[in-house]
Amino acid sequence: METPVTPKSLPLRIHEGLERLATALRADDWVGARAAGVNPTQFAIMASLEGRPGGLSVRDIAQQLGVSQPSATDSIGALERKGYLYKAPAPSDRRSVRIVLTEHGEASLASAHATRSVAESAAGALDRAQQEELLVSLVTMIRHLQESGIIPIQRMCVSCRFFRPYAHQDAAQPHHCTFVDAAFGQQDLRVDCREHETADPSARAATWAEFTRDHTLNPPGI
Fold first, then answer.
1. Where in the chain is the domain with CATH 1.10.10.10?
2. CA–CA dist 65, 63 (Å, integer)
3. Which of 11, 56, 96, 157 is the most exposed place for a label (fewest CB within 10 A)?
4. Which of these, 50, 126, 124, 121, lies nearest to 84 by C-alpha position?
């Protein structure tokens, strides 16, 4: 094999790797969508509503999926006709509506999730330490995208007002969640937590600075 004279940069090769994974994940989405009797866009809308009893606005859904509001509206209408979701008045403004999953939609989504295994299989090829490292790397990348305004704020620990990074000296469970008042470790970091409440920008910045600080040099409480 001939070595390229001008090899691609490391970030570009990571981009290529993520593209390969994305191709497999899109195929997996088709499997889940077919199991639920919807198309991938409709499936993504249902997934975005999962664990949100208060629902989302059409605008929120469009932002989550990166599609136009008219496109989201068309897919929402199709899902409503299938009985997978319904429109409810927004508590703060009765003229606005929230899109909420029905029990039928939740059951169909849960059944469809059971048919998807690509991501879990790929992650299973890594040992435990590699999985934790990958999780933190993904959190870092997602945070960069959300803080840059490219994607909406995600329901991650690192953007939540309940998260206290490295609050404990226990290396296995250094973090603390004030919502459940419990310690937890890197392997338990959430990317999509139902109890998430977004911290204000200054608090998010301070939390991230503490989360990424080298705690081997200055452990908690020292």
1. 10-113
2. 5
3. 11
4. 50
Name 192's Cβ contacts closer than 8 Å, sequence gap at least 6.
Answer: 51, 154, 155, 156
The pairing of strands 85-90 and 93-101 is: antiparallel
Let me know the angle formed at the C-alpha of 28 by 27 and 34, rounded to the nearest 5 degrees. 90
Model-level pTM?
Answer: 0.83
DSSP string, 22-90: HHHHHHHHHHHHHHHTS-HHHHHHHHHHTT-TT-B-HHHHHHHHT--HHHHHHHHHHHHHTTSEEEEEE
Secondary structure (3-state) at 156: coil
Q: Which CATH number fits domain 10-113: 1.10.10.10, 3.40.50.300, 1.10.1740.10, 1.25.60.10?
A: 1.10.10.10
**Angstrom distances, CA of residue 90 to CA of 51, 53, 68, 132:** 17, 12, 21, 39
The C-alpha angle 77, 80, 81, rounded to 5 degrees, equals: 90
Q: Token pair of 54, please?
A: 């208060």
